[in-house]
Amino acid sequence: MRFMMLMIPSGYEKAEAGAMPSAEMVAEMTKYNEALTKAGVLLALDGLHPASNGARISFSGGKPTVTDGPFTEAKELIGGYWMIRVKSKAEAVAWASRCPAQDGDVIEVRQVQEMSDFPPEVQKAAGGTRLGPQ
Amino acid sequence: MRFMMIIKADRNTEAGVLPSKELVAATDKFNEEMVKAGVMLAGEGLHPSSKGARITFSGGGKRTVTDGPFTEAKELIAGFWLIQVKSKEEAIEWASRCPDPLGPGETAQIEIRQVFEMSDFPAELQEAAGNEPAMRAKLEQGWPKVPRA
Question: The CATH number of A2-125 is which of 3.30.70.1060, 3.40.50.620, 3.30.70.100, 3.10.20.310?
Answer without folding.
Answer: 3.30.70.1060
